[in-house]
Amino acid sequence: MSEVNRPVMVLVRPQLGENIGKAARAMLNFGLTELRLVAPRDGWPNPSAGPAAAGADVVLDRAKVYDTTAEAVADCAHVYATTVRKRGVTKPVVGADGAARLIHGQEGRHAVLFGPERSGLETEDVALARHILTVPINPEFGSLNLAQAVILVAYEWSRIGRELGAGEETLVQPTAEDALPPAPQDELDGLIAHFERLLEPRGYFLPETRAEATRRTLRTVLTKPGWNHLEVRTLRGILSTLEREPRQ
Q1: CA 78 – CA 72 distance, rounded (Å)
Q2: Cis amide leading into 139 (omega within 30)
């Protein structure tokens, strides 16, 4: 995927180093590495950011610091301000998915602004943006922390990129465990026969008028899961243990 399709994440006046680290971790989970910081309260670098990043050091090492929001987005043609309200500024409003489509579809650098943890973006920050980026949220509790906001945007960017087939895969599902093939029929028949041998002396197949239907139901239950040979062996081992006399 071309570099212009990867949005820059801009944290405006972030307060805690831990939150910067968590935001970096959220970014790298979805393939984003360009982080810009505007006047971080506790300066930069911040020793609290590294542990919270949980290995996303490449994002922190490349982070750039700016004095003002305007300087941080000066090279960006498209700027999105994340906020739950417009703060008196009239601009087009898009969701995280809509912003992702614009990022993948429009040339030029794209930057997403995230405000301070306590107060969010100020009006002058929002004024720099071309779009308001917001998500539907509980009107009685519209409070996302910084990393949550970053991961919402990063995930939608990655998801829409895969949907549009925009270059390389940006999000990869965890590798599924290789499944063993179903057990051969003779092993499954042996398991069913083992069950029947244990159940018959205990009257499970009575009355005799229902015996055939009961056996058929038992076979259906035992064949439905598609046991592999290891699972069949485990079940046979359980049945063999139940057949033995209990230990004193």
Answers
A1: 12
A2: no
Domain residue ranges of the chain, discontinuous segments joined by +: 3-164, 185-243
> For residue 170, what pLDDT is reported?
47
Pairing of strands 93-94, 110-114: unpaired
3-state helix, strand, coil in the chain (%, to 5): 45, 10, 45
Question: Which string of b and e fits 221-242 if b means at least 16 CB within 10 Å?
Answer: ebeeeebeeebbeeeeeeeeee
Q: How far apart are CA 91 and CA 112, in angstroms?
A: 15
Tokens standing for 89?
A: 């500024």
C-beta pairs of 243-246 under 8 Å, 24+ apart in sequence: 243/198
DSSP state at residue 67: S
pLDDT tens-digit profile of 205-239? 999 999 999 999 999 999 888 889 899 999 999 99
pLDDT score of 85: 60
For residue 214, give Cα distances in angstroms to 221, 226, 227.
Answer: 11, 20, 21
**Residue 37, φ and ψ in degrees, nearest 5:** -120, 130
Residue 125, amino acid:
D
pLDDT value, residue 42: 93
For position 1, what pLDDT does the model report?
Answer: 42
CB–CB of 102/52 below 8 Å?
no
Q: Which fold has domain 3-164?
A: Alpha/beta knot (3.40.1280)
From CA 23, how far away is CA 150, in angstroms rounded? 6
Residue whose entry in the numeric block shows the structure tokens 């601009």: 91
How far apart are alpha carbons 72 and 9 in whole angstroms? 10
DSSP label at residue 182: B
